[in-house]
Structures are given as C-alpha cells and as structure tokens.
Amino acid sequence: MKNDTMKIQVSRNGPYIVTGGVPLMVMEISNDDEGYCRSWRKVQEYPLQEQYALCRCGHSKNKPFCDGTHAKIRFDGTETAGDEPYLQSPAIIRGSELELADYEGLCAHARFCLRAGGIWDLTRRSDIPDARDTAIDEACNCPSGRLVLRDRKTGETIEPVLERSVVVIENPARGEHGPLWVRGGVPVVSADGKPYTVRNRVTLCGCGRSRNKPFCDGSHVEK
C-alpha cells in the first residue's frame, strides 16, 4: 500500500523538504567489463526519518542533507521547469515490437542507454529478442524517465517496479556525483505549491546548476 503522505516540497532558494517517511539511500552505477553502465548497486541506506531536508544548492558540507549553506551563498534556486513542455512532444522511435518515447530534456547522463549500439537502434531492431530485451533493460535503468518504452502489441508502457524512495546517485567510474533519483511516484511540489507531473522515475538537481530546476538536466557532468 502506498503512503499517501509522502511528498517532496521544493523550498524557495532552499532545500528539498522530504516528508512522509520516504526511504533515502545511496546507489552507485556499476559498469560491465566493456565499460558500459550496466546496473545499480546500493551502497548505503540512511535510517528512516519522517522528515528531512536535502541539499539543492550543491554546496552543503553534509551532503546529501542541507546544512544551511544556500543562505550564505545566496543560492538562486528559481524553478524553470514551468509547465514541463518537454513532456508534451517526445521524439518517437518505432520498431516492430517496441516504441520508444525519448523525452530528451530530462536527460541526466546516466548513460545506461549506450550499450549494444544504443537504445534507439535496439528499439528499431526490437523484432530480434536480444535487442528487445536489451532495450527494455536500458530504458528501465534510466533514472530520469527520459526513455520510456511501449509494447506495440499490447499497447502497455514498460516501467520498472520501484520502491517509493529517494536515491543519491554516484558514478565512481567517472568521478561524478549525480542527481537525486525520486522513485515510485513520490509527488514533487514547487515552491509556489504547484504539483509537478507525478512520474515513476524523476531526477532532481543536486548540484544547483541545472537550467531546468528543480529537475536535473545533466549539468553536474560539466566541468
């Protein structure tokens, strides 16, 4: 049964206020022998708390938690996602078995989509069982929900079953500290009180540099 009190409130120029006892953990991206991103590995789980505040400016010395640094640096956390126009018209790639909706504006650069020629080519070749299975694996590992597959025979969207939780993403192979991965449909509400679209997979900016706040746009990988 879902806990309907779970919520992430974006505070104005401040942290994410997480309420309702949302589990919090750290997960690393693991690579295969060829260097491709392949799977997730849980490395830490924090004690369950009814409420906690997560850093949004990227400068807390107590990450992932807020330590008040946003006030000292006068962090500008203005939300620019607005009505989420990037959700309205994704690029569509069709194969005989699968259809891929690519919401490119949501990319968090987790790079699960590049293996075996990439999910776009795999979707086009989805009449081949191995290509179909690999495409599904890559889409379901995409934390931001940029890549969403649909079975063309049944019309059903293919989504992973995810525990309602927040995951701090780490990519040790590349030395990257990624976004906050909100899983399982935990609602995110703007500082103005407007709910964003509830999705199974969402990545929130944790570095403070995204141009699509509060969501990640991959800016954490920029040097």
Describe this protein's structure.
This protein has helices spanning 69-72, 119-124, 129-141; strands spanning 7-10, 16-19, 24-31, 37-45, 51-54, 91-94, 98-102, 147-151, 157-158, 165-171, 176-183, 188-189, 201-204. With 223 residues, it is mostly beta strands. The protein folds into two domains: 7-83 and 162-221, no CATH class; 87-158, no CATH class. The strands form three sheets. Strands 4-3-10-11-13 form a five-stranded mixed β-sheet, with no helix packed on it. Strands 5-2-1-12 form a four-stranded mixed β-sheet, with no helix packed on it. Strands 6-7-8-9 form a four-stranded antiparallel β-sheet. A hairpin with a 5-residue loop joins strand 8 and strand 9 (157-158). The model has no long low-confidence stretch (mean pLDDT 96).
CA(first)-CA(last) distance: 42 Å
Give the total of domains.
Answer: 2
Average per-residue pLDDT, rounded, comes to 96
Give Rg in angstroms.
17 Å
Helix tally equals 3
Residues in helices, as a percent range: 10-25%
Question: What is the compact description of this entry?
Answer:
With 223 residues, the protein is mostly beta strands. The chain has two domains: 7-83 and 162-221, no CATH class; 87-158, no CATH class. The protein has helices spanning 69-72, 119-124, 129-141; strands at 7-10, 16-19, 24-31, 37-45, 51-54, 91-94, 98-102, 147-151, 157-158, 165-171, 176-183, 188-189, 201-204.
Pick out its properties.
single chain, 223 residues, mainly beta, 2 domains, 5-stranded mixed sheet, 4-stranded mixed sheet
